[in-house]
Amino acid sequence: MNESRRMSRRVTREAEGGTPRGARNLLAAASVVVLVAGLKAASSIIVPLLIALFISALSLPLVGLLRQRGLSPGLAVFATMAVDIACLFALVLVVSNSFNELVRERAKYEARIREFRAGVERQVSHTRAWLEDHGIATEDWFGDRFGDPEDVEPSLSPADAPRQRAAALPASPRRRGTATAEQGGEAVAASDAPWLTLFDIGALVDAANRTLRGVANLLTNALLVLLITTFVLLEATTFPKKLRRAFGNSLAEERFGRIMFDLRRYLSVKTAISMATGMILGIWVAILGLDFAPLWGLLAFALNYIPNLGSIIAAIPPVLLALVQQGFGLALLVAAGYLVVNVVIGNFIEPHVMGRRLGLSTLVVFLSLVFWGWVWGPVGMLLSVPLTMVVKILLENSRDFRWIAVMMDGHERRQPSPPRGESRAEA
User: Cβ atoms within 10 A of the Cβ of 383, count?
Assistant: First the structure.
């Protein structure tokens, strides 16, 4: 009897309060789907805005420091924007100089790649001979994966190699283990191993050109990004007061201040750690004599913002270059340096400095990387953790969805307290 009365009172309260909680949750889920679809469709507009907000969050501490030194808000923002533009120009200069040097030294790297390929295929030939001497058949397996080592002619010059290979193709007998194409009854042999085409300097230059074109397309929005950044920095100091005037209390200002404090804390710590990572790795590869050392340090700095996968992606190009430049010894040293730096900084220093401020589980970090990368591409991957932090903080200040923030937390701690202004009964 008492149980039925409690149930009837609960139904009555939900009816008096308006929409039932289940319907509100369903409506919220549908709204999220529509919102995500809209964000993905409007990526060409939102991505520059996100970049501007990211730069603004990094620049706000400098604006505050300059204002404490007595500069007016406008002059402090102007000086900060000058520093931002100088840093951006320096980064573009390092990248462009590295790619220009790669294009100028293309012939040298092509020769090194040919020597590397010839050495690998000679080693494959010796391995095949040793295995066959011991009664192990390797014809099909090695032929499908590495091609026939007898087809390799490392002595050909860059100018003569394509001509001689093209002239030899129609008369070449079908060798064992090579791919063929039957046209007009003639077999055309492909002598190159498929995996060795990864070391094609022409393909690398083409990929670099495509990357530069993508960067150029991004820089077409540079003026828009700079304008948005300037206005955000000008409005940042007065926005909390506008919130207080708009809502009549300091609750909105408190929530906004908490979001901005967490973001600034995360970005400042992450930027300092990324700079340390980039400098250490840049100095390491420079000591080893690897070409384009400033570029690899810059790449390690930028990709360190991407959790989990960024450090792995940053290590691939310098390791491949070391493999071509001086062989496996240098490649192992470069890989060992990246491994040690990322393990020490990523597993010990960064968690100690971040502490519980980040407050996201490893699974949530990885899923946010995949999700925001799908929505906004590389920029979404770069900003995946800050964006997820904003979502988590907003959920912590929601009465109905506070439990989601608890599930996203990376540490076992007490449930976040209800936002100020809500009673314990309402929670």
Answer: 24
pTM: 0.69
3-state secondary structure of 308: coil
Assess contact for 232 and 363: CB atoms under 8 A.
Answer: no
Token pair for 106: 């293309």
Q: What is the maximal distance between C-alpha atoms in the chain?
A: 97
What is the pLDDT tens value at each position of the chain, 427 positions in all? 555 555 555 544 544 455 677 777 788 788 888 999 999 999 888 888 888 988 898 898 899 899 899 888 889 999 999 999 998 888 888 888 888 887 888 788 888 888 888 887 888 888 878 887 777 766 656 555 555 545 544 444 444 444 444 444 444 444 444 444 444 443 333 344 444 455 555 666 666 666 666 666 666 678 888 899 999 998 887 776 776 777 666 666 677 777 777 777 878 888 899 999 999 999 999 999 999 999 999 999 988 887 777 888 899 999 999 988 888 899 999 999 999 999 998 888 887 787 655 567 778 888 988 999 899 888 888 888 888 888 887 787 777 778 888 888 766 554 444 554 444 434 3
Q: Kindly tell me the burial class for residue 298, based on how many C-beta atoms sit within 10 Å of its own C-beta (0-12, 13-18, 19 or more).
A: buried
Coil, strand or helix at 45: helix
Residue 141, both tokens: 């397996």
Nearest to 259 by CA among 137, 357, 181, 376: 357
Q: Give, in order, the Cα–Cα distances in Å from 112 to each of 154, 225, 287.
A: 11, 42, 21
Torsion of Cα atoms, 260 then 263 then 269 then 270, to 10°:
-150
Strands 186-190 and 179-183: antiparallel
What are the Cα distances from residue 40, in Å, to 34, 156, 210, 371, 411? Answer: 10, 51, 23, 11, 31
Mark out the alpha helices in 105-221 (DSSP H runs). Answer: 106-133, 139-146, 160-168, 201-219
Smallest CA-to-CA distance from 47 within 405, 423, 373 is with: 373
CA separation (Å) from 10 to 32, 44, 217, 401, 425?
A: 28, 47, 57, 20, 13
Q: Helices (DSSP H) in 179-309: which residue ranges?
A: 201-219, 222-236, 239-247, 251-287, 293-303
- Residue 377 · residue 370 · CB < 8 Å: no
Outline where DSSP puts E strands in 70-204.
179-183, 186-190
Q: Phi and psi for 182 in degrees, rounded to 5? A: -90, 110
Identity of the residue numbered 102: L
Written as six digits, the tokens of 38 are: 């809209």
From 103, 94, 108, 104, select the one nearest 325 (Cα to Cα). 108
